[in-house]
């Protein structure tokens, strides 16, 4: 039985794909439900969605669609991949509603949550979530310098049992580090990597069908329970197929610092209102990028934070996706970088690659992918707002152009 996962955005989905591929599993990521022929011979596969940007009605409709398609595969262990910082709200990107609707549609009674991912600097103890920040310190999630001020789903509660209950997943039983779980639904603390491994073994020993919500630590726990510890060699460097296009939809403080530090890109700030307006305003932006790509120059378009208007993050992401898809079709860059979870989901959804495969690791939480698009293979890197070091864009540009090797 293959490992199956459903992700609430594309950046997170790509990280879980990388976790499984680095362990030696033959894995692939799809944008919608694959058919049996597409997953034949795979050890693991996943579906990347845009649930993080959806309201309640959209999440219910999406979950019912996925559950109806997954029923034929009858997964016993279904990983619901969510952000390691658990940012979600009752009205936007509600991960508890997503989990419960999937469970109902698949007839799965047991739901569990793994609360941390130590390998990514996310730690859960006494039901409280902590995360490393861009300053190098570890913060309680409701005091995190990035996530406490997230523009759409700010984290105001560090007690994950309270947080998830507010989303609709009530009655969670707290499982202390390294301990065996009791009644479902369960929430596992995880301070160290050994706690992830213990949670994986406990869930596999529980028997029955289960939906397990959490970051890529869920995959790490499953691999440990199956005694899969191999690591494949780093993939060879990518070919230099031309200049790299970067689009920055994230407006987190860390991403702003990374944009300012990017030396290997021509950079153009764009007011979100201009992106939404389209027409002549977007044509000028497109011409600017096309000119630079034509002369083999990496270029970056980044949305500014100084905007106002009656539009939703989903509307902005969709407008950005339409713009980038047209630019890629006409200018054919050699690689693509997208910063921002909503932006990544919308853009990759619009490009609609047949599938995505792992091609190396850029930094923790950000793999390099190969997308099979209508125009040919397109190497890409998708990052969330809180991922990567200050030199992220220059490192990503160099890797996508084959100038540095990927990590294992």
Automatic annotation (TrEMBL):
The keyword Lyase does not apply. Residues 246-393 form the Four-carbon acid sugar kinase nucleotide binding domain. Residues 4-220 form the Four-carbon acid sugar kinase N-terminal domain. The keyword Transferase applies. GO terms for molecular function: ATP binding; kinase activity. Keywords: ATP-binding, Carbohydrate metabolism, Kinase, Nucleotide-binding, Transferase. It holds the Pfam family NBD_C. InterPro entries: 4-carb_acid_sugar_kinase_N (IPR010737), 4-carb_acid_sugar_kinase_N_sf (IPR037051), NBD_C (IPR031475), NBD_C_sf (IPR042213). Belongs to the four-carbon acid sugar kinase family. This is Four-carbon acid sugar kinase family protein. It comes from Paracoccus siganidrum.
């Amino acid at each position: 039985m293959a490992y199956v996962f459903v992700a609430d955005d594309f950046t997170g989905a790509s990280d879980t794909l990388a976790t499984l591929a680095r362990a030696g599993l033959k894995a692939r990521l799809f944008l919608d439900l694959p058919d049996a022929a597409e997953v034949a011979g795979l050890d693991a596969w996943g579906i990347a969605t845009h649930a993080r940007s959806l309201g309640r009605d959209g999440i219910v409709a999406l979950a019912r669609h996925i559950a109806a398609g997954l029923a034929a595969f009858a997964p016993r262990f279904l990983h619901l991949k969510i952000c390691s910082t658990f940012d979600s709200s009752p009205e936007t990107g509600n991960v508890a509603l997503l989990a419960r609707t999937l469970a109902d549609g698949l007839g799965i009674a047991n739901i569990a949550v793994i609360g941390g991912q130590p390998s990514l600097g996310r730690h859960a103890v006494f039901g409280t979530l902590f995360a490393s920040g861009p300053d190098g310190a570890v913060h309680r999630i409701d005091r995190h310098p990035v996530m406490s001020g997230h523009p759409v789903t700010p984290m105001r509660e560090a007690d994950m049992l309270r947080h998830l209950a507010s989303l609709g997943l009530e009655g969670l039983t707290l499982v202390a580090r390294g301990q065996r779980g009791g009644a479902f639904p369960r929430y596992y603390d995880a301070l160290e990597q050994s706690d992830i491994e213990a949670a994986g073994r406990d869930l596999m020993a529980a028997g029955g069908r289960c939906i397990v919500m959490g970051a890529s630590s869920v995959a790490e726990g499953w691999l440990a329970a199956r005694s899969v510890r191999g690591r494949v060699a780093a993939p060879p460097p990518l070919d230099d197929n031309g200049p790299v296009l970067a689009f920055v939809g994230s407006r987190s403080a860390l991403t702003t610092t990374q944009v300012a530090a990017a030396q290997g890109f021509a950079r153009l700030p764009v007011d979100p209102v201009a992106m939404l307006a389209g027409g002549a305003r977007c044509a000028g932006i497109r011409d600017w990028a096309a000119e630079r790509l034509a002369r083999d120059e990496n270029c970056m378009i980044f949305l500014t934070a100084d905007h106002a208007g009656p539009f939703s993050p989903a509307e902005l992401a969709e407008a950005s996706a339409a713009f980038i898809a047209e630019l890629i079709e006409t200018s054919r860059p050699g690689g693509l970088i997208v910063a921002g979870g909503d932006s990544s989901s919308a853009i990759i959804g619009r490009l609609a690659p047949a599938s995505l495969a792992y091609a190396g690791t850029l930094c923790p939480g950000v793999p390099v992918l190969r997308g099979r698009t209508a125009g040919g293979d397109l190497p890409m890197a998708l990052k969330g707002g809180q991922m990567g070091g200050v030199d992220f864009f220059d490192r990503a540009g160099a890797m996508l152009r084959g100038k540095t090797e990927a990590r294992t």
